[in-house]
Structure formats: structure tokens, C-alpha cells
Amino acid sequence: MLLYRNKQISENSSSSFRDSISVTSREHLKAAALIRLLFYENELERGHYSAAVKKEITAKIVKILSLLSSPVFEKIEIAEYLHGISKDRKSDRLEIAVPDNSQKRQYDVVISFAGEDRDHAGRLAELLKTDGFEVFYDDYEEADLWGKNLYEHLTEVYSKLGKYCVMFLSKHYAAKQWPTLERRAAQERAFKENREYILPIRIDDTSIPGMLDTVGYQDLRQKSIEDIYAVLKRKLLPINALLPIKAEADSIGQLGLSDDAMALLKYLSDKSERALANDPISPAEEVLGALELSEEALGFAADELDEKGFVKLHKTLGMGKAGFRYIGTTELLFSATDKYLRDWNPEDDSITLSQTLIDIAQEGHAVSVQGADETLKWGPRRINPALSLLIDMDMVNPSKAINPDYISIHVILKPKIYRYVKRTKK
Asked: Which of 53-64 are b and which e, b meaning 16 or more Cβ less than 10 Å from the residue's Cβ?
């Protein structure tokens, strides 16, 4: 909304909207613009970003400066107004999303290799970067690494800042000091988490300390780096790990539910009008009458759905053998099962919705979910499951305001949503 108003105000020609806007409203807008300007300038000065990201930040600064220089703002004095905000007003009157600069940059992949194997590592890094993944590769980090204590920094990168660590294992890797440091840091992380954090790629059969022969690996003697990247990409795509059911499943039977649980699932799905949490929330007595189940059978069915995260059971005294007084849906019920029960697939819809949000977004400001729905003409029942997926995948930040029709009134797009759309179009 702020950016929409900014756009209207910055026009030189007369408009009823601009002419009627009050001085106080312009104080609000100018203050918000100045605060965001200060934030961007601070990020440009202190943030560790690539040249491309810095270029985007600079472009945003230029747009804000252009807005502030428009005639409608020139004579607005807001020094006292800004002081009043900091002294008297809560943050909810002026919601500016400022990231925590204490948080370290996170990478999808950190690459560990010896200098002699740089050609392979560089090609993998290029493929990752082209598809929009965040990758730690030393050539991309030259400015950030300059002047740092590399022992401390690399230990942190390989032990804390990556989702996966790809290691190019070779005789050179075994002999070099820096790869040894990186390997030990990664192995410490893998030991603590007990999961497949380290993804080894063998160049030869050199024995590497701590790397068991039983660990699965890719072999550059048998596959090209492009073939190996295709496997890595499948591990990285977030949609694969999002749902508690197999992504390739094409039948509702893949959910592994009993007939009674399936009947309860369909009942709740059919009764929902907007695919929201507690839409519906139904008394146990009502469900018993609709499904013609015994209390005990209903209790077992509800427990199955509860274990999947599809429902919330509201329990009170005197709830009987069913084990609950009311049963309410969760948003996961719809995002995970609509592809079986409806004429749409929330996973596919999440991609379409992402592109629509990007198309109507302006410089990262809030995007109206209703506005996106007006473009797509889906209605809340279809758009909410797709939006739920985007929120779960951390692609967008939802607003906290309550809305009767949508999960969120508006969302703030995160940088990864652009990478998500780019990757899924490949």
C-alpha cells in the first residue's frame, strides 16, 4: 500500500488522490521512506553482498531519493515527527521490516576442494549460482574474505552456515592444509546432526580421514559434473522435503490412512470454505452423525489425522470415547491433500502464485494477497493452500493482521522466492 501511494504521489500531473492527501499522511510516508533509505544505506555500507545485490540496493536508494525529491514532499518537515515516533509510538504504527544484521549469511551449499581440483568445483558453483542457489565458493567471496581471520571464518562456514557441504575428494584434497580444516569442521557438524550433511564427490580413490567407505558418494570418473549437479539439485529443491507424503505420489492411497481416517479427511476438506486453520471446526457429535462411525472408530481416525498434522483435537472433560470435543483443520490438511481431492495441485499453484506475486510486487514492499487472487481468480479455497506452502518454505513473510478469507492480508516477498520461480522453470 505504501508503494502504491508513493507511486501516485510521485506523479507530476494532478490527481485527486495526491491533492487530497493530508500533510500528516505525507509525514507518515516521508518518514517511512527516510527510515527505509537509512536502512538500505546501512546495508550497502555494512552488508556482505555480491555486486549484483549491491546494484539492486543502489537502485532502491535511487528510487527513494527520487520520491523524496518530488514536489509534494519538498516542504514537508518531519524532524519533530520522527522524534515523536521514536519517543511515543510503538513499532506497530510504522512497521518497517529490518533484518537482524547479527544473523550470518546462510548457504544452500558450501564447496570444499583443493586448488588442483578447482575446475570441477568452479563448474559446480557456476551451475548452482545460475539456478539461484546460495553457494559458498572462494572466488565468489573474495571481497568478504579479504582481511578476515580465515581459520575462524572458514571453520564457521563449514560447520554452521551451509545446508550441505560438497567435498571433492582426491589425493590433493587429502594433502592440503585448508581442505583439511574445512573437512574437520564439516565432519564435526555431521557428527552432531547425524544426517547427510557431507556430500562427497570422488575424483580418485585416495583415502580421506574420517570418510567411511559406507558413505554414499558421486564419482566424477563415472558421471559428468552436470549429471552430479542434477542429483544435487533434487536434494536442494524445497518442495521435495516439504510434505510428509511422497512428492511423486499420484494417489490419495499414498497417505497410508485407514478407510475411516480417509472418510474423516474428505468430510473436513469438503466442508471447508477457505482452507484455513479451524475451517471447519466441528463438534464430535456432528461428525459422528455425518460419518455414521462409532465414537471409538472416530477417535482412531482423528488420531491418524492428528499424527499427520492435518487436524487439531480440542479436548475437554466429558468428551467420551472419541477422545475430543471438537476437531479443527490445520492449513497443512489442504496444502498436502488438495492435489488428491480437488482439481488443482497446491504445489503447482505455489509456483504460479509466486510468479503472480512477483509480477505485482514493487521493490519488496507488501503485496496484497487479495490482489493476487483477483488476478488469478482462484478464490480463498484454492489460493490459501498455495500460500501456505510459500509460508512454510519461508518464501514470504505473512502479515500478522487477521483476515477472514486469507491466511494473510499481505505478504513481503523474500529473495528466495525469485530463485524458487527460476529453479522450477528449468
From this structure: eeeebeebbebb
218 in any annotated domain? yes
Burial class (CB in 10 A: 0-12, 13-18, 19+), 391: middle
Residue 182 resides in a domain = yes
Cβ contact 197:211 at 8 Å: no
Query: Domain check: are 17 and 89 in the same one?
Result: yes
- What is the SS3 assignment for 125? helix
- Which three three-digit cell numbers place residue 91? 513499532
What strand order describes the sheet that includes 135-136? 135-136, 107-112, 162-169, 198-202, 218-219
Q: What is the pLDDT of residue 314?
A: 84
* pTM for this prediction: 0.46
C-alpha cell at 92: 506497530
Helix (H) or strand (E) holding 136: strand 135-136
Residue 91 CB partners (closer than 8 Å, separation 6+) = none
Domain of 381: which CATH number?
A: 1.10.10
114: domain CATH number is 3.40.50.10140
In angstroms, the CA 34 to CA 193 distance is: 44
* E strand or H helix that includes residue 398: strand 396-398
Domain span at residue 231 reads: 107-236
> Which residues lie closer than 8 Å to 146 by C-beta, 6 or more apart?
none
Do 222 and 214 form a contact (C-beta atoms < 8 A)?
Answer: no
Q: Are residues 143 and 230 in the same domain?
A: yes
Most distant CA pair in the chain, distance: 75
Number of domains in the chain: 4
Q: Sort residue 86 into left (φ over 0), alpha (ψ -120 to 50) or beta.
A: alpha
Mean pLDDT on 401-417 = 85
Q: Measured at the alpha carbon of residue 406, what is the angle toward residues 402 and 408, in degrees to the nearest 5?
A: 55
Greater model confidence, 78 or 417: 417
Given 316, 339, 362, which residue is the final one in a domain? 339
Considering only CA atoms, which of 361, 354, 340 is closest in space to residue 425?
A: 354
Nearest-angstrom CA–CA distance, 220 and 143: 31
Q: How far is CA 308 from CA 277, 311, 345, 390, in A?
A: 15, 8, 19, 19
From the CB of residue 87, how many other CB atoms can be counted at a distance below 10 Å? 7
66 and 172 in a single domain? The answer is no
- Which pLDDT belongs to residue 11? 43
